[in-house]
């Protein structure tokens, strides 16, 4: 795996729109953050039977990690858009008073701050999804 990572990084380092090592570091930070617990793996139908009826483009950190390691991202923006999709889905599905919703808000603020600090390529012009009605 060390050789694979080294080869993968050398392939993408020449592309100035993609910074794989920085994105890997950022994802590791997100996974270690105390507010990441709702987003570490796909939502199960057992835990939320109606989730996939409400959320049409599910995303989670495990899926993002797999896509990152499988070189599915060509630009920083693609990775960042998937992370933002996690938070948009959270706001769409969960009620504002839930721990999941609050965790999503907190972690999304932390994430965007780190994106700016790391100088990653991203235009934050996406509007959040509509909130779920009670």
UniProtKB/TrEMBL annotation:
Q: Which UniProt keywords apply?
A: Acyltransferase, Bromodomain, Transferase
Q: What class of enzyme is it?
A: transferase
* Assigned EC number: 2.3.1.48
Single GO cellular component annotation?
CHRAC
Q: Which domain of life is it from?
A: Eukaryota
Acyltransferase found in the keyword field: yes
Q: Does the keyword Transferase apply?
A: yes
* One of the protein's GO biological processes: regulation of heterochromatin formation
- Tell me which Gene3D superfamilies the record gives: Bromodomain-like
- Residues forming the Bromo domain are 31-101
Q: Which SUPFAM superfamilies match?
A: Bromodomain
GO MF annotation list: DNA binding; protein-lysine-acetyltransferase activity
Q: Which residues cross the membrane?
A: none
Question: Which PANTHER family does this UniProt record tie to the protein?
Answer: BROMODOMAIN ADJACENT TO ZINC FINGER DOMAIN PROTEIN 1A
**What is the name listed in the Swiss-Prot or TrEMBL entry for this protein?**
Histone acetyltransferase
**Source organism lineage?**
Eukaryota, Metazoa, Ecdysozoa, Arthropoda, Crustacea
């Amino acid at each position: 795996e060390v050789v694979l990572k080294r080869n993968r990084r050398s392939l993408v380092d020449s592309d100035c729109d993609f910074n794989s090592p920085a994105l890997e570091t950022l994802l590791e930070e997100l996974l270690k953050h105390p507010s990441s617990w709702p987003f570490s793996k796909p939502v199960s139908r057992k835990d939320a039977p109606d989730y996939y009826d409400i959320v049409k483009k599910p995303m989670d950190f495990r899926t993002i990690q797999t896509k990152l390691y499988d070189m599915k991202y060509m630009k920083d923006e693609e990775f960042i858009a998937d992370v933002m999709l996690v938070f948009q889905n959270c706001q769409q599905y969960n009620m504002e008073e839930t721990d999941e919703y609050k965790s999503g808000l907190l972690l999304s603020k932390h994430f965007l701050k780190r994106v700016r600090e790391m100088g990653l390529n991203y235009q934050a012009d996406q509007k959040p999804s509509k909130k779920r009605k009670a």
